[in-house]
Amino acid sequence: MNYTFQFGVALESLPALLRAGILTVELSFFAFWGGALIGLAGAAAKTFGGPVVSRLAQAYVVFFTNTPALLQIYLLYYGLPEVGIILPSFTCVLLGLTLNAGAYLTEIQRAGFLSVRLTEIEAAETLGMSLWQQIRFVIVPHIAKTIYPPLANMFLILVLGSSMAAVFSVDELTGTAINISTETYRWLEMFTLVAGVYIILTFVASIMLAVVGRKFFRVKARMF
Amino acid sequence: MHHLKITNLSSAYGKNVVLTDVSLTVDKGQVISLVGPSGSGKSTLLRVLVGLTPPTGGTVEIQGELINYNSKSSIKLSRDRMAIVFQQYNLFQNMDVMGNVTIAPIKIKKRDRKEVEAEAEDLLERVGLADKLTAYPDQLSGGQQQRVAIARALALQPDLLLLDEVTSALDPELVTEVLDTIRRLASDGMTMIIVSHEMGFVREISDQVVMMDEGRIIERGLPAEIFDKPTTDRAREFFGKILRH
Ligand SMILES: Nc1ncnc2c1ncn2[C@@H]1O[C@H](COP(=O)(O)OP(=O)(O)OP(=O)(O)O)[C@@H](O)[C@H]1O
Ligand SMILES: [Mg+2]
After folding, report:
1. By alpha-carbon position, which residue is closest to atom 6 of ligand 1?
2. For the domain that residue B207 is a member of, what is the CATH number?
């Protein structure tokens, strides 16, 4: 290997990368919570909806978990303007990531619903809990504990998946790396550096998620 | 006045009639055991009493007050007086032992946390689990979980305790500790209806034994009467089978 690494320019771009990192976190954060809400509705539809509603939810899940996320964003990016909806790139990518995450989070939350044990609910009922108290003290904490690990995992996947935004000229981490490299030609240095930023990001997120999981949900999460 | 008075109680799952005209009275401090073959309706009777399965006919009075099973508030009132423990440990997995025992008095009865926790410690001491206050259900054996479930039921200070085969999911060596707990409750004067297949235990602890078959009470009496000289063929056959084991 006779390539000489010159990290000078790459390091000069650190402030720009940090700003881009914030965008990456924003994308994954909003996609996660948006997806979690969609997933909650989807899981409710699949579990409690009639034959029609649950099939619609199922169709959504099948489509979004069996096609590439990148392709889904392309469909929105070029499809929405055709029906008169013109969105900024960032919003369009966010929408795509959210819909994609929503499909996976539907399945995760449905598994959570199904893990609730009827005997625990009956015990709660005979102890005199109202439906609302059962939901609050028994059902939700149980579901939260069960689905916390896959949820945390989903968030990390979204942090990395948000790099697809680069294709749509959103200046998150990967996009910014591409932009700077195009000007400086230090592709390898830039991408090495950005890889490092991603690792730090997911590392910090994993630790935070593990700590929260341990403290509030008694999840024995392993950190790496 | 009887502590509990069940009159012509019936129930069904859809078209499948599982309780027919069951009448039974329980006096304060009495221990009544329900025995009978699988599917005879013992669990269903207890489930109807606590309002988990709706009756199709008949009445239930607790301390002279009629329970209206069509009314949520009436059922709720009855649950202040009756507590049930099931065969399958049904502790709340997301709470530790203390949390399981205190949640209902604190969150539902809105009682003072300190006071409730002090009582809970006494209760857990009584069931032999004083050292497990901060353990979670998945860190306990079946017998320990079942004793927590009993303590949780007692924390609401019920006038009547219903126990549905609380030992039948347990390994034999764990059965004794749970039976000991029940014995202690009986000698403390707790009124109980017990469903059990532990015939030796039933014989020893019961003031009255009630045998059910196909949703009806077919025989009742003192333990000695029922076990030694059952009057119906069905009961003779049942005890013959069980006691030969
Ligand atoms: N949830 C249910 N839906 C429909 N039928 C039920 C249900 N639970 C019980 N049954 C039926 O009701 C009848 C009485 O059942 P129950 O559980 O009360 O019997 P049991 O005397 O408690 O039996 P075991 O000794 O096996 O516990 C049985 O025929 C059973 O199949
Ligand atoms: Mg039963």
Report:
1. B13
2. 3.40.50.300
Query: Is B67 domain-assigned?
Result: yes
**pLDDT tens per residue across span B139-188:** 999 889 999 999 999 999 999 999 999 888 788 878 888 898 899 999 99
Nearest to B92 among A125, A138, A218 (CB): A138
Please judge whether A119 and B50 are an interchain contact, meaning their C-beta atoms are less than 8 angstroms apart. Answer: no
Chain A: closest CA distance from residue B103 (Å): 9
Structural domain of residue A71, as residue ranges? 7-216
Q: Name the E strands within chain B.
A: 4-13, 16-26, 31-35, 55-62, 65-66, 82-85, 160-164, 192-195, 208-213, 216-221
Which ligand 1 atom lies nearest to the CA of residue B44?
A: 18
Q: Please tell me the residue having the least CA distance from ligand 1 atom 30.
A: B39
pLDDT at position A26 = 95
- C-beta of residue B197 within 8 angstroms of C-beta of residue B242: yes
- Residue B115 counted as domain residue: no
Q: Which residues contact A103 (CB under 8 A, 6 or more apart)?
A: A39, A42, A60, A61, A63, A64, A65
ipTM: 0.87
Domain count, chain A: 1
Ligand 1 nearest atom to the CA of residue B34, by list position: 21
d(Cα A212, Cα A219) in Å, to the nearest integer?
9
Owning domain of residue B200: 4-90+160-242
Tell me if B45 sits within 8 A of B8, measured CB to CB: no
The pLDDT tens digits for A99-108 are 999 999 999 9
